[in-house]
Amino acid sequence: MKKLFFFLLIILFILVGFSLFFWLYEVKFFVGRAAVTAQSFSIDNSYLFTTPLRAMANGQEKIRVTVFILNNQGLGVMGKTVQMGPDKNLVIETIQGLTDGYGKAYFDVSSTHAGDYFLQITADGKALKQQVHLSFY
User: N or C end of the chain: which has fewer CB within 10 A?
Assistant: First the structure.
């Protein structure tokens, strides 16, 4: 009986040890992936999208532009200043112009002039390859 108890205690100790190692390793892995700072970003990996694709040109409806600034490994780069090219027919509201821990920046755009607009996005003064396409009707 003592041998069985001792054997089960050793098995339990080994299982707890392996599970602690696994969880500590995973926490280190996930913490290391977040919030890359003081690093250059990749123009090729960075991208943007808009939602909705179209809005009424009534000055009230807005199109949200979300920009992701990523490094060469596809991780978000924090602390980059993002700007959207001006247009006299658009009202551009910077919601979050400095990228967060995921490399995201947000803008809301409205207009009272119908039409299609193509705007340049810059991050720390460098133009992204993708342009914003906004459509107001």
Answer: N
3.50.50.60, 1.10.357.160, 1.10.357.10, 2.60.40.10: CATH of 47-136: 2.60.40.10
Sketch the domain layout of the chain as residue ranges.
1-33, 47-136
0.90 surpassed by pTM: no
* Per-residue pLDDT at 37: 52
Handedness of CA 59, 137, 64, 121 (dihedral sign): negative
Pair 130, 105: CB distance under 8 Å:
no
**Which of the residues in the chain have pLDDT under 50?**
31-35
